[in-house]
């Protein structure tokens, strides 16, 4: 017996709610919107930190916040839990993006991955050289990696603002470039900015990794079951002196790319359960039978998508519209009146800004040109050198990962604030240059499409 109501018989309030949620879901998947939210959070932080309520801004993030289980309690500042805790989820999504690209995306074949890898390498080397050229002092030189990363949300969001006239292969190239940039940034954090390493912490992290492998081997598909061993990996890396957010990358790379094996395919399971429930009213009155069928439908629904897709999709909205804006709000609040921009900090700010706005496009375009002219690589269909220049400019938007790296590179507050100002200024300049060039490029693409229908 079918207990569902036809769509037209649903209460009006329910139909309106369904339409609103469908619209909201589409809204959440627009990358340009997430970039806008991130920008708004950064602007709010700057305004707050330079207002009459600046003291409350800094006091909020230094507020102690305790998390405990049983007799084990850890009390840290809110700033710590955001930067070291919540950002682990951001890195988890990054790890899953890399895992997907390696499995079936732009990094799945060596010949496809070679060009964005070379371009990303150029986009790391050139900004680092520009920065070091302006900051040869060893203390300031610690920030050489700050301008080397690309912010995926901002860069892809800016490209989305240019409309559908941008070739698909150009979008794929930017996404692959940004992902490889993130991989390089993660490696830099792991090997350059981790403190003195403690072996016992790695033992704890290894135990957590073994627990994850064990759960995968016995066919546990629920994502919640992996939270305790994931927390163990995070704790182990924190104990070791390595940056704990790297736990997110490790777990993301370990996420399976295929659904858990079942005794019958998910669609077949759904069809069988639906057929059994249509047997008669008795099926609906047997509570034990209903629970069994509901469990089967839940498993089938869960395993229709591989875990790497399912978990990333579930976390996307939380990361893009919650964690990243909160990170920006907590870290972009720089006091312009008390930043202490003496000669040293000024050099850091200038080095970071120039490296992002100038070094990134020079490195990306230059490395791509060398790779193509050497005959080792070729541009994908639909890509032109104007499009490569557009990607190079947008790659200079280095907001989230650059600020994160700056906090690891500079314990001195004056240098850290200067680096953040350089990131904000350089990223803004790169975005404006990219959008200006992109608007002209998109017009040429539309004219070309009109001339050659």
Automatic annotation (TrEMBL):
**Cross-referenced InterPro entries:** Na/H_antiporter_dom_sf, NhaA
rRNA-binding is among the record's keywords? no
Annotated catalysed reactions = Na(+)(in) + 2 H(+)(out) = Na(+)(out) + 2 H(+)(in)
Per the record's keyword annotation, is Ion transport included, yes or no?
yes
Pfam families, per the entry: Na_H_antiport_1
On the tree of life, the source organism's domain of life is Bacteria
Can you say where in the cell this protein is located? Cell inner membrane; Cell membrane
- Bilayer-crossing residues are 32-53, 113-132, 144-166, 172-192, 199-219, 231-253, 318-342, 348-372, 384-409, 421-442
State where it is primarily located: membrane
**Membrane topology, as annotated:** Multi-pass membrane protein
**Keyword list, A-Z:** Antiport, Cell membrane, Ion transport, Membrane, Sodium, Sodium transport, Transmembrane, Transmembrane helix, Transport
Question: What family is reported?
Answer: Belongs to the NhaA Na(+)/H(+) (TC 2.A.33) antiporter family.
Function noted in UniProt: Na(+)/H(+) antiporter that extrudes sodium in exchange for external protons.
Record-linked HAMAP family: NhaA
Q: Under which name does UniProt file this protein?
A: Na(+)/H(+) antiporter NhaA
What is the species of this protein?
Bradyrhizobium quebecense
């Amino acid at each position: 017996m079918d207990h569902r109501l036809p769509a037209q018989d649903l209460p009006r309030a329910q139909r309106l709610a369904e339409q609103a949620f469908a619209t909201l879901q589409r809204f959440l998947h627009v990358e340009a919107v997430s970039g806008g939210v991130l920008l708004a959070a950064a602007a709010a932080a700057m305004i707050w930190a330079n207002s009459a309520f600046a003291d409350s801004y800094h006091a909020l993030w230094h507020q102690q916040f305790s998390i405990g289980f049983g007799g084990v309690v850890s009390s840290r500042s809110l700033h710590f839990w955001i930067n070291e805790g919540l950002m682990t989820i951001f890195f988890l999504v990054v790890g899953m993006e890399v895992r997907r690209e390696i499995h079936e995306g732009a990094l799945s074949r060596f010949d496809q991955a070679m060009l964005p890898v070379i371009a990303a390498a150029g986009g790391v080397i050139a900004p680092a050289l520009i920065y070091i050229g302006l900051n040869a002092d060893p203390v300031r030189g610690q920030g050489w990696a700050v301008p080397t990363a690309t912010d995926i949300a901002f860069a892809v969001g800016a490209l989305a603002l240019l409309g559908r006239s941008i070739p698909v292969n150009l979008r794929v190239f930017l996404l692959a470039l940004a992902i490889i940039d993130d991989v390089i940034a993660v490696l830099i954090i792991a090997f350059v900015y981790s403190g003195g390493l403690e072996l016992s912490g790695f033992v704890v992290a290894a135990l957590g990794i073994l627990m994850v492998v064990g759960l995968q081997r016995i066919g546990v598909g629920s994502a919640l079951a992996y939270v305790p061993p994931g927390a163990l990996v995070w704790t182990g890396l924190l104990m070791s002196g390595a940056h704990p957010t790297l736990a997110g990358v490790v777990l993301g790379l370990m996420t399976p790319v295929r659904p858990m094996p079942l005794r019958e395919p998910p669609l077949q399971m759904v069809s069988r359960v639906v057929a059994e429930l249509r047997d008669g009213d008795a099926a609906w009155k047997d509570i034990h039978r209903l629970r069994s069928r509901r469990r089967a439908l839940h498993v089938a629904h869960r395993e229709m998508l591989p875990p790497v897709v399912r978990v990333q999709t579930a976390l996307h909205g939380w990361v893009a519209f919650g964690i990243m804006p909160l990170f920006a709000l907590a870290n972009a609040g720089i006091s312009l009146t008390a930043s202490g921009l003496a000669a040293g900090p000024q050099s850091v700010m200038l080095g970071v800004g120039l490296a992002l706005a100038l070094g990134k496009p020079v490195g990306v375009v230059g490395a791509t040109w060398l790779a193509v002219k050497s005959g080792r690589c070729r541009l994908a269909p639909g890509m032109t050198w104007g499009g490569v220049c557009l990607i190079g400019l947008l790659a200079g938007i280095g907001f989230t990962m650059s600020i994160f790296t700056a906090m690891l590179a500079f314990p001195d507050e004056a240098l850290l604030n200067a680096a953040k100002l350089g990131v904000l200024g350089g990223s803004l300049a790169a975005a404006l240059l990219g959008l200006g060039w992109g608007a002209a490029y998109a017009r040429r693409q539309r004219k070309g499409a009109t001339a050659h229908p």
